[in-house]
Amino acid sequence: MSRQRIPSLKLLMGFEAAARHGNFSRAADELHVSQSAISHQIQQLEEEVGQPLFRRVGRGVELTVAGQVLQRSVQRSVGMLRSGLDRIATYLDPGLVVIAGPAELLHGWLSPRIDQLLARYPALCPILSTDESARFIDETDIDIAIGDRPLQQAGLLEVPFLKDEWVVVANDRLAGQLASVPAAQHAEHASLICLEESFTRDDTAALFRNQLAPFRKHVIYDDERLLLDAALRGRGIACLSRLVAEESLAQGRLHILADYPRIEGVAWWVSRVAGEPRSPVVTDVFDWLIASAQ
């Protein structure tokens, strides 16, 4: 069975306006055409679908059952079209740059630097996206992507960005208490808060099997931002990404405990289109990111 031909958008828009107003004259005024033009469009549409869509009621019209079914479909479709056009209009703003990356890195490293970025480029409007499914630049409205490996997508400029490490930290009060206690006795004076994945990660598992094994586990999290918050509240010592904790370390709210090893972490990459981007500010932001990582 062959699929029915879809009527033209012009006919469907005329129908949508007439159905919404219940009046051909008002629909014509909205679309800036004559009433006879709307009548002709409805007649043509009814011929194409093979069913009457309106019935006359006094000076207006009302939908038939077939018209009601078509109205719901057309309204959904028109809504999606308008949403898409609005999205395109926003994306074409020359000052807008979409940066996609892991939430913990955007939160810990990039967010504290946003004021510096905006001071450098006042016309910039960055969109920070944590959409982990965004794996293709351009195809998903992404200008710059930060990830733990190159995207290996054709036509991209991809460079090493940031080198992370895992550090054991405590807040200012707890770090002060532990400073006067031998490392072998730390577990008697503090609890351990950690990420669930830290027990099985290739880079951190040994630390938890050895130096951190004596500690009582206080709370286990599945989000590094929650772990950061807990460490700042003094709920225990924590093994955190240095980049996630960077602002708190710089402010003296967290301290790295020197008695525990610093472990090599993720090597982050940053990517953008290799050729001319849709806006020069994309190149500016990309270069700024790399310079700020030095």
Spell out the key features of this protein.
about 290 residues, alpha/beta, Arc Repressor Mutant, subunit A, D-Maltodextrin-Binding Protein, domain 2, 3 domains, nine-stranded mixed β-sheet, two-stranded antiparallel sheet, 11 helices, LysR-type_TF_proteobact-type, DNA-binding transcription factor activity, LysR family transcriptional regulator
Structural account:
The protein has 294 residues and is an alpha/beta fold. It folds into three domains: 9-81, Winged helix-like DNA-binding domain superfamily/Winged helix DNA-binding domain (Arc Repressor Mutant, subunit A, Orthogonal Bundle), CATH 1.10.10.10; 91-162 and 267-292, D-Maltodextrin-Binding Protein, domain 2; 164-265, Periplasmic binding protein-like II (D-Maltodextrin-Binding Protein, domain 2). The chain has helices at residues 9-21, 24-31, 35-49, 65-91, 103-110, 114-120, 172-179, 205-209, 224-232, 242-250, 280-293, and strands at 54-57, 60-63, 96-100, 125-129, 144-147, 156-171, 192-195, 217-221, 237-241, 254-256, 263-273. Strands 3, 4, 5, 6, 7, 8, 9, 10 and 11 form a nine-stranded mixed beta sheet that branches. Helix 1 crosses helix 2 (24-31) and helix 1 crosses helix 4. The longest helix has 27 residues, at 65-91. It starts with 8 loop residues before the first helix and ends with a helix. The model has no long low-confidence stretch (mean pLDDT 91).
